């Protein structure tokens, strides 16, 4: 992904996220990043994927 995601004032309506320790997290399980990247290739289960855009608060 090119560059860090921007934190928007409005939530990204297509994303539900419960990672409340993320810089982009908003109450109500919203993500305020303008874009996210999900990893990783060749995942075989839900547990093998996660958000690479995550940034600690
Ligand atoms: S950037 Fe990823 S981890 Fe952070 S709130 Fe958005 S979806 Fe969740």
Could you explain how this protein is built, in words?
With 57 residues, the chain is mostly beta strands. The protein has one domain (1-57). It contains no helices and 4 strands. The protein has strands at residues 25-26, 30-31, 38-39, 50-51. Strands 1-2 form a two-stranded antiparallel sheet. A two-stranded antiparallel ribbon has the order 3-4. Strand 1 and strand 2 form a beta hairpin. It is globular, with a radius of gyration of 11 Å. It starts with 24 loop residues before the first strand and ends in a 6-residue tail after the last strand. 11% of the residues are buried. The protein binds iron/sulfur cluster. Iron/sulfur cluster binds next to loops.
Structural topology:
Layout: E1 25-26, E2 30-31, E3 38-39, E4 50-51
Antiparallel strand pairs: 1-2, 3-4
Iron/sulfur cluster is lined by residues 15, 17, 19, 22, 24-25, 31, 33, 36, 51, 53-54.
